[in-house]
Automatic annotation (TrEMBL):
UniProt-listed Pfam families: SMI1_KNR4
Domain Knr4/Smi1-like: 15-141
Residue ranges of the TM segments: none
Source domain of life: Bacteria
Organism encoding this protein: Archangium gephyra
Protein name: SUKH superfamily protein
Length: 145
């Protein structure tokens, strides 16, 4: 299914340059998935349609792709701010990339591999739930809810 990216934080795209993504990889000591790099470069701060995904015995929605750029007025939507919030509560290797409508985080889970992360949901209670084996599978599995 083709994904359309819709405005969330801004009305038009705010591109990210690859150097910012390289710095993020160095900071987190990981390799970001190629598809994520491709998408966030163009669509940071936007939301996908369709946006529903399965988690556990239910489903949730992917609301917004967190921003990598340093937009101070959008700090609450930045990967660095989300990482700072989560860091004391989750194991090392959990790195946020998106938000759900309920304020939960979609994250890369690098605990088993620094190059091939799984996708997990971190709830507001800071519990971690598996969502997909990799980012491409996650994106390909989005559906209309």
């Amino acid at each position: 299914m083709k994904i359309q990216w819709v405005p969330y934080l801004w009305t038009e795209p705010h591109p990210v340059d690859s150097q910012m993504l390289d710095r993020l990889e160095q900071q987190w000591k990981v390799k970001l998935p190629d598809l994520y790099r491709e998408l966030v470069t163009t669509y940071q701060g936007m939301g996908p349609e369709p946006c529903a995904f399965n988690v556990g015995t239910g489903n949730d929605a992917f609301s917004v792709l967190l921003i990598v750029s340093a937009e101070s007025e959008k700090k609450a939507y930045s990967v660095n701010e989300a990482h700072r919030i989560l860091e004391p509560h989750v194991p090392v290797g959990i790195s946020p990339f998106a938000l759900t409508p309920g304020g939960e985080y979609l994250c890369f889970d690098y605990r088993n591999s620094p190059e091939q992360p799984r996708v997990v949901l971190v709830t507001v209670e800071m519990s971690i739930h598996p969502v997909a084996d990799d980012f491409a599978s996650f994106m390909n599995g989005l559906y209309s809810g």
